[in-house]
Amino acid sequence: xxxxxxxxxxxxxxxxxxxxxxxxxxxxxxxxxxxxxxxxxxxxxxxxxxxxxxxxxxxxxxxxxxxxxxxxxxxxxxxxxxxxxxxxxxxxxxxxxxxxxxxxxxxxxxxxxxxxxxxxxxxxxxxxxxxxxxxxxxxxxxxxxxxxxxxxxxxxxxxxxxxxxxxxxxxxxxxxxxxxxxxxxxxxxxxxxxxxxxxxxxxxxxxxxxxxxxxxxxxxxxxxxxxxxxxxxxxxxxxxxxxxxxxxxxxxxxxxxxxxxxxxxxxxxxxxxxxxxxxxxxxxxxxxxxxxxxxxxxxxxxxxxxxxxxxxxxxxxxxxxxxxxxxxxxxxxxxxxxxxxxxxxxxxxxxxxxxxxxxxxxxxxxxxxxxxxxxxxxxxxxxxxxxxxxxxxxxxxxxxxxxxxxxxxxxxxxxxxxxxxxxxxxxxxxxxxxxxxxxxxxxxxxxxxxxxxxxxxxxxxxxxxxxxxxxxxxxxxxxxxxxxxxxxxxxxxxxxxxxxxxxxxxxxxxxxxxxxxxxxxxxxxxxxxxxxxxxxxxxxxxxxxxxxxxxxxxxxxxxxxxxxxxxxxxxxxxxxxxxxxxxxxxxxxxxxxxxxxxxxxxxxxxxxxxxxxxxxxxxxxxxxxxxxxx
Length: 630
Fold this sequence. Notes:
Layout: H1 2-26, H2 31-48, H3 62-65, H4 72-89, H5 93-103, H6 108-123, H7 128-145, H8 154-165, H9 173-184, H10 196-212, H11 214-217, H12 224-230, E1 235-241, E2 264-271, E3 274-276, E4 290-296, H13 297-306, H14 315-320, H15 322-335, E5 346-352, H16 363-366, H17 368-372, E6 375-380, E7 400-405, H18 407-411, E8 419-428, H19 435-451, H20 456-469, H21 475-481, H22 484-503, H23 505-516, H24 522-540, H25 542-560, H26 564-575, H27 586-592, H28 599-624
Antiparallel strand pairs: 1-4, 2-3, 2-4, 5-7, 5-8, 6-7
Helix pairs in contact: 1-2, 1-22, 2-22, 4-7, 4-19, 4-20, 4-21, 5-6, 5-7, 6-7, 6-8, 7-8, 7-27, 8-10, 8-27, 9-25, 9-26, 10-28, 19-20, 22-27, 23-24, 23-25, 24-25, 24-26, 24-28, 25-26
């Protein structure tokens, strides 16, 4: 009866796995719902058909199945997401993107190759999860810079990090698990670089695939906000006054371009009562000049955040004394100049609706700041060349205003009948004042874990708390960094892995492989063993595959009288081949949201990569260990 129950439960687990994969692929039900549904199915199955141990306890009780949601790996991933969001919020990682762009000469191909190569190299010596967290914003910045889709870059980033982690003993926790299992089985463990040569061969083959093939297989998929405005390049009209201490003083603008304002085009300069128009021959900027510029939203927000005072015409006056500060704020309200504190601010777009009270009036006449407590950074009017001060433009229906204000003030524009708030366009500005704190927290957390003195889960959780405690993020921002897809899919994957272990499902597959290959040569067995472990690593997670198959690999090697290190290396490489599913490895889950991927995207890009690595492994590793290929 016990054998019947276990066989039934094993096949029931296989049915749940197949059903979950079908549901993930069809995408008619949200991924979070499918993942929670898998956990519910397991809870119900083992509630009515339990697996009893020698003490009469259910080996797959609800507490055991739900342990995955308290797993240190899950806690680590979520804490890293919060810390990564803190780095983004502080604007720190934009520096990394600038370095990559500088080294790449500002060219897309070189910049992307350098970023992916850097991720792979760093992953060989550090845990690849924080590496991917660091590089996600860099890849996003590159996608925006070159008006590309983040969906073309995020999966390649995850793959590059995993490939780099295959080359050294500490490159992945999976490698360390295999090494620990070898010690327990009285097999000589790996040295630090023992499998680096075959690892580099596989990584090189995979990296070429990631560069040349994977982007072509991946869809150009973006968020709604990214689709609507990130790559449009539409121009807003803005204005600012040249201050006495501005670096623009004494500089010319040939062709309407200032060297220090590479992303803005000067349309007109108002000097006193006169106006200076292009081509600006012999023009040199003076204090008090009002520059009317055309620029994208990205350029304006970049200037607002990183070029303090550029869009704040009365900033110096406000700093002199309280009386001057009050006057300057009043003037800013009248002139509708932008706000003076980018920290904790939101930028969004609003459209002037037909029959609005704003039609036919200028920003000065409307008093937009007094009415809404938001300030206008720029005005965009389709198919119209405007050469007048922003504050003198008479508004028309359909005009888009780029506004800045606190989150509550921007949100209150929903109730304003004169404009329509484009909610998808709302974007929080980086708080650069917290940059140093964010860097120190991140470096301390990763550095302590790298020394081995404190576990990674401890340092990252403390780092996430420190990000909130020191004001880099508020509680709401930290909560938004936690992707529910990651929480539910990791919990479901770990529950499935436990169920397959306890019901004997994984052992059943492995034993069947050995029986089916009886009489085959060591190179053939090694090649097919790699393929089976690689396939299962996409279902039961890399760590589970490493733990389950290392003892089997050692037994096969002993039975065939070949070096056990060859089959242990097969487990190391194959268990890391979790490319065809977001469930297999945490780095895939990390890029799931930023790349706006579906389950089938990982299958489309990951299955060919597994086959490429299998082919490279089959041709090189048996030869490396002295096995005849045929």
